[in-house]
Amino acid sequence: MFDRLQAHFPVRYTAFALCIFGFLLMLFTVVGFGVGWLGLLVFAALIALGLHDLRQVRHSILRNYPVIGHLRFLLEFIRPEIRQYFLESDNEAAPFSRAQRSLVYQRAKSEPGNRPFGTQLDVNTEGYEWINHSVAPSRLDSHDFRITIGPERAQPYEASVFNISAMSFGALSANAILALNAGARRGGFAHDTGEGSISVHHRANGGDLIWEIGSGYFGCRHEDGSFDAQRFAEQAREPQVKMIELKLSQGAKPGHGGVLPGPKVTPEIAAARGVPVGVDCISPSSHRAFSTPVEMLQFIARLRELSGDKPTGFKFCVGHPWEWFAIVKAMQATGITPDFIVVDGAEGGTGAAPLEFTDHVGAPLQEGLLLVHNTLKGAGLRGKIRLGCAGKVVSAFDIARMMALGADWCNSARGFMFSLGCIQAQSCHTGRCPTGVTTQDPQRQQALIVPDKAERVFHFQQNTLKALQELVQAAGLRHPQEITAHHIVRRVNENEVRLLASLVPQVAEGALLGVSLGDSLHNVFRLYWPQARPDRFTL
User: Fold this and answer.
1) So what's the pLDDT on residue 89?
2) In the UniProt record, does the keyword Iron-sulfur occur (predicted)?
3) What single string gives the DSSP state of each residue in 241-276?
């Protein structure tokens, strides 16, 4: 009998049946005793929901499990929060671990960062790294480490070794931009505008700016989207703009353009970018101003001249090695060298990007930085060009490690977002950021109090540099630039550790200048360097 009942009324409808039973029970109490109106309305709403579930055609689960099937979607919706707050360990990275986020929060608030009872890391696991210390530590007077970018330029820039990476107004809220720039001004470090150009919020507090010029030429474009030299010169010569950065690609989605939908193009964003209000704002996947490596360098030289001879360079995420080699050969052929190059790692990314691009396109920072650093060394150009990098850099050890691999300075995007109060909700692309960092909703932005967050931006950068100072002193050095791959050690298995210098490829100074390449060079150089040409990106 039970089997026959179950066949006619499957268990999956039990929740819906209980709603009907509850409704009838509440109806009885209302008719008989005049109480239970609220319960009656609740069960009536649940019955209506169940009927809708049975008739809708989008979700199979709801058709088979009316009413209770919504529990599955609810649990799926709150799963990231449940995992983040209750299940995730301190050192699980997704994409930043709780330990990494906590480090930023502590330094942004200038809270004590000391930890009792030893490391929480497994020092015996493969990949664990450390920096070797000296029995004769150095003593430094300041943590304000700086490098000169463009020493031959009319307006060279004394840059900090730790700066704010490219994040556009539009991707970030107005209050976030205001707080970042105010913190940058107080600390004397640089704030990269991102390709969304210079907005009124970038200008409000007067912090140093690196103006990023993307393929959409926002802020310096004609109506048809082509480059406008006059508009560029007007803004590039402003004293607040310290350097010009041509963006070839970004780590989050290299080789991919972007579209800011028309409804999101507010009057403020339109004014900054030089585009119509309410019209789709398109960022092409490639530049219109040049099509060959030589033309690219000539464009960089033109930007430098228009800016009043300020340091000018480019940013990219390494892709086809022969394209990068072609750019270097164009430098040799033309004599034009950028003042700096910023290598963006594929693990970076503050905005939305297609999943395949986020996970599987572009070289990670270590591989990209090493290729660029080694190629410039081999071509005899490393001494003329400064190297910056970005990609999950949040701690002093992250900076030290990147400088050991060849960087002159590091940028951080998400690290500074954490200093603003970002909780890694990963809703940046929805406009519903819970902390007001990545939304254009005026009400949500009010949660981000600019003076308070500006202080946190300043303290995060300063306290990170103080930690870097302590690492440099412990290693017996005078400046982070003295850190090399010989100072970093990595465990390669349970019983063996090796210096990073013996694990990563090394190219000798001038090794690519000879007629023939030595057998000691990595295959990527021996295969693609001879084929690369300065007049084209293709082989």
Assistant:
1) 65
2) no
3) EEEEEEES--SSSTT--EEE-GGG--HHHHHHHT--
Query: Please, what sign has the CA dihedral across residues 10, 12, 16, 19?
Result: positive
Question: Distance (Å, rounded) from C-alpha 362 to C-alpha 319?
Answer: 5
Q: What percent of the chain has pLDDT over 90?
A: 71
CA-based nearest residue to 103, from 86, 129, 122, 121: 121
Residue type, 303: L
Q: For residue 236, give both structure tokens.
A: 């590039």
- For the chain, helix, strand, coil in percent to 5 are 40, 15, 45
What is the DSSP track for 208-253?
-EEEEE-TT-TTSB-TTS-B-HHHHHHHHTSTTEEEEEEES--SSS
Task: Give the sign of the dihedral formed by CA 502, CA 507, CA 486, CA 409.
Answer: negative
Q: Which of 71-75, 359-363, 527-531 has the lowest mean pLDDT?
A: 71-75
| pLDDT classification of 2: cutoffs 50, 70, 90 | very low
Kindly give the pairing relationship between strand 281-283 and strand 191-192: unpaired
Give the separation between CA 351 and CA 135, rounded to whole angstroms: 45
Enter the tokens of residue 311. 């340091």
Predicted structure pTM score = 0.88
Closest CA to 317 of 288, 275, 285, 295: 285
> CA-to-CA distance for 315 and 247, rounded, in angstroms?
5
d(CA 52, CA 210): 54
**Pairing mode, strands 386-390 and 340-344:** parallel
Exposed / middle / buried, residue 238 (Cβ in 10 Å: 0-12, 13-18, 19+): middle
Query: What is the pLDDT averaged over residues 159-166?
Result: 98
Q: Is the pLDDT of residue 351 over 70?
A: no
Name residue 76's amino acid: E
Side chain identity, residue 503: L
* Span 341-362, average pLDDT: 84
Quote the tokens at residue 445.
Answer: 């932005």
Burial class (CB in 10 A: 0-12, 13-18, 19+), 202: buried
Whole-angstrom Cα distance, residue 435 to residue 421? 6
Q: What angle do CA 261, 265, 271 make, to 5 degrees?
A: 145
Look at residues 167, 165, 164, 166 and name the one whose alpha carbon lies nearest to residue 185.
164
Nearest CA to 314 among 371, 381, 376, 246? 246
In tens, the pLDDT along 88-122 reads 666 666 788 888 999 999 999 998 877 778 888 88
Q: What is the gyration radius of the CA atoms in the chain, in angstroms?
A: 28
Which residues sit opposite 386 in a β-bridge? Answer: 340
Q: Which of 202, 270, 267, 266 is nearest to 238 (CA)?
A: 202
Out of 78-82, 227-231, 431-435, pick the least confident. 78-82
pLDDT, tens digit (0-9, with 9 covering 90-100), for 14-27:
999 999 999 999 99
Burial state string for 442-467 with b = 16 or more CB within 10 A and e = fewer than 16: eebbebbebeebbbbbbbbbbbbbeb
157 beta partners: 149
Q: Is the pLDDT of residue 160 over 50?
A: yes
